[in-house]
Amino acid sequence: MKRHRLFIFSLITIICLFSGVFSLYADLQGNNSPRYEDYNIILIYVDTLRADHLGCYGYSRNTSPNIDKLASESIVFTENYTPVTYTLASFMSIITSLYPKSHGVLEACKDKIPRGVKTLPQVLQLYGYKTVWFGPNHDAHLDPDVGFGLGFNEVKLSNYSRNNPAAQSRVLCKWIEANQNARFFLNFHTYKTHDPYFPSLSYRERFSKRIQDSIPVTQKELSRAIFEDTKKAILNNEPWLTEIFGKGLLDKIITMGIFEGEFSFQKIRSLRAFFARNNIELKMAQLENYVYWSKINLKDVQIKKYIIALYDAAILEFDSEVIAPLVAKLKQFNLYDKTVIVICSDHGEEFFEHGGHCHGPTLYEEVTRVPLIIKAPWIKRGRKINDLAQTTDIMPTLLDLLGMVIPAQAQGESLVGLINNKEFLSPHKYIFGQRQDKSSIRSEKWDLILNEEGPRELYQINLDPYQQHNLYSEKKKVSTQLTAELKGWERSLKRYQDQEYSFPKEIDEKTREKIRKTGYW
């Protein structure tokens, strides 16, 4: 009798134990997606957005209330990095899941996507998605002809990207309303958070009052500064003008008389038109960039704080004028629970953490750590994942999440195992960075940067997250081991670029060299 009772008790215990396991398994399975046929995809690509300037990543300012609310219902990857820190190469890595030197699209105004490489929208078209890209007009960094237009049924370019996100949002929402019955992939890009930092009037002083009138805070103020500074430089024969234009082009500009007499916006428009006619619009960008940053001394602590406040205000404007109405529109047409939403960025921004500003030349934390927020309707509880991730993972993760085949070319990893709680180890032991003149390898503890020019760098990032103490010489064993890992990884990468491209003859050698070094002009 005792033996019988013991058997019954043991059986009940086993059943309870297994029912608990099955319950846990079922809970994990509850995160699994249905098939792709039921879901739209929106990829929101916010240029120059640092992860650590969003509330959901721990920022103290209220820059992102709507993104934060979306993040509370999403998977937030807290340690997500871009492999490259300028727009052209970075965005190509996102839509192809290839590292920069694999896709080979490294130099603006020159390189194009290799034949045979498939982009994310091309894959989604095969599965019946209607694909549309909303992006900036006249942008050599995201020129559709480079390959960014591949796979899109519609390419909608506008000048709203930086100056008027509310207008851009209205166009976006109107498209969603007109296509509410389609299964769509919508790729949305904005430069709102890119320099020069020009938040609209209602946002401009949200985090700081204006402290210096000479710093332009609108496009009109920058145009006036360009006129005044260039006129003065011509009169005084200042060398920076020749540095930008070269003597021949500068002489042409002087003979046009644009910088004579009093300022007018028509004169600046005439200069833009001249550059456009001669296929050298990038010269206007060079002039704007030089004049804007000549007004800003980031070594001055108060000015640095003010510039960061403008940057944060631009984030808030994008959050309020694009994210809020987009989510409202999706809910209005019962699409919110039928849409996978991804928020990401191509790179962050430097504010003199390592002696520089903007982005492009370096691979430090402030420019490589970017947000990755994935909202899938069937995931009901948002959470944060602290494992290493990279923007090359976006394409395979999206496809895997919706039950589609990941192309063999993909060098990123699917993060679905982490999303579904099925994998307790990251698919990445290391993540990597690549520029023309440097490369990097990062683990959870270490970050090694190999510079072709300048010293090699090693940081123990779990103790030194701001990368201030170079331990390359002190930790020789770690440096040697990580260098071997990085070099072996680089040798293993397949190169897809199958032909050489040339710069247009209109681009002078100094500008070509700057593009090679920074990704920009």
Task: Note the main attributes of this structure.
521 residues; alpha/beta; Alkaline Phosphatase, subunit A; Arylsulfatase, C-terminal domain; 3 domains; 41% helix
Q: Largest sheet, if any? A: 8 strands, mixed
Q: In what range is the share of β-strand residues?
A: 5-15%
Q: Number of DSSP strands?
A: 14
CATH architecture of the largest domain: 3-Layer(aba) Sandwich
CATH class value of the largest domain = Alpha Beta
Which stretches of 5+ consecutive residues score pLDDT under 50?
1-31
Question: Strand sequence of the main sheet, in spatial order?
Answer: 4-3-5-1-6-9-2-10
Helix percentage: 40-55%
What's the overall geometry?
A: globular
Q: Report the C-alpha radius of gyration, rounded.
A: 25 Å
Mean pLDDT: 91
What is the terminal-to-terminal distance? 88 Å
SS element count, helices: 18
- How many structural domains does the protein architecture include? 3
**Annotated CATH homologous superfamily of the largest domain:** Alkaline Phosphatase, subunit A
Structural class from helices and strands? alpha/beta
CATH topology of the largest domain: Alkaline Phosphatase, subunit A
